[in-house]
Amino acid sequence: LIGSGKLPQPDKFTYYYPDLSLTRIKHPINQTTPATIELLTSPYIIIKHEAFSWLRDKNPEGYVVYYNQPGDSVDEFVYFFDMLSTYQILTEGKPIVLRHCHIHPNENAIHHFERAKKKYSTDWLLGEDERLFLKIDFDKTDKIVVEYNLEQIGMEQR
After folding, report:
1. pLDDT tens, residue by residue, 56-114
2. What CA–CA distances, in Å, run from 91 to 31, 37, 69, 85?
3. CA distances (Å), 30 to each of 8, 13, 151, in order?
4. Which of 85, 99, 80 lies closest to 128 in space, CA to CA?
């Protein structure tokens, strides 16, 4: 995403760690904070980025969310919107790019996503749906790598 101008350079984004009720990261979160194993194996990886420029385009502050769930139902996405609202990401009104990256995505995931936006806004947003949901984009990840070259990632046998 960095090479295509959809995400800024690494010094302009952080992995988003919401305040958790049982555990939390023990140090301040900034641009040098790496992704933990808990984050990498979670159903959502949330990246918060600052405003940045790419070529002649100016991109506002926002979020990129890697969504690692199949997208099998409307309720799955309603739950996701509720989670974003709980973490006060949805209600900030900043752009959110949802990148669907499940190994076996449901072919109707985009339709479930759109129907969930309508359902969630009807049930919970009371007229705020346009302000909040117009800034959310659904993007299907083109390629998912499930095999790793251990030598390239530094995990070769010694």
Report:
1. 888 888 899 999 999 999 999 999 999 998 888 888 889 999 999 888 899 999 999 99
2. 23, 28, 22, 6
3. 15, 8, 29
4. 85
Name the β-bridge partners of 15.
47
Domain boundaries along the sequence of the chain: 41-50+60-158
Pairing, β 136-140 against β 96-100: parallel
pTM for this model (two decimals): 0.75
What is the full DSSP assignment across the chain?
-TTTTSS--GGGEEE--PPPSS---SS---TTPPPPHHHHTSSEEEEEE--EEETTEEE-SEEEEEE-S----HHHHHHHHHHHHHTTSGGGT--EEEEE--SS--TTHHHHHHHHHHHHIIIIITT-HHHHHTTEEEEE-S-------TTTTT----
Strand 62-67 with 57-59, pairing: unpaired
| Residue 51 to residue 30: CA distance in whole angstroms | 15
Give the tokens for residue 8.
Answer: 């800024």
User: Residue holding tokens 């049982």?
Assistant: 22
